[in-house]
Amino acid sequence: MAVSVKDVTNKPSAWRVGGVPILSMMDSHPKSGYKRTDLVVPSQEVNMNDTPYQKFKAAELRWRYIDHYSNPGPIQYKD
């Protein structure tokens, strides 16, 4: 199970929790280097000329100089 918890800076009663079974993301189609019965996560091709990738590259250049990630730090639980 892949699990995510959102809004952890709020009270625990306001947290949003979600999950996805990892097996639902896997495929049994053969892939080079794997046996036919092996489960693999299907890969996707990325076209480096498409707009989504170009937007990512433009943002990546900004991210090198400005940190847009905000980490509130560990949650402190009080007794």
Characterise this structure.
- With 79 residues, this protein is of the alpha+beta class.
- It has one helix spanning 51-63, and strands at 2-6, 16-20.
- It is built from one helix and two strands, in the order ββα.
- The model has no long low-confidence stretch (mean pLDDT 81).
Number of helices: 1
Helix content: 10-25%
Structural class: alpha+beta
Rg from C-alpha positions?
Answer: 19 Å
The biggest sheet amounts to:
2 strands, antiparallel
Features:
79 residues, alpha+beta, two-stranded antiparallel sheet, 1 helix, 16% helix, 13% strand
Précis, in short:
The chain has 79 residues and is of the alpha+beta class.
Protein topology:
Layout: E1 2-6, E2 16-20, H1 51-63
Antiparallel strand pairs: 1-2
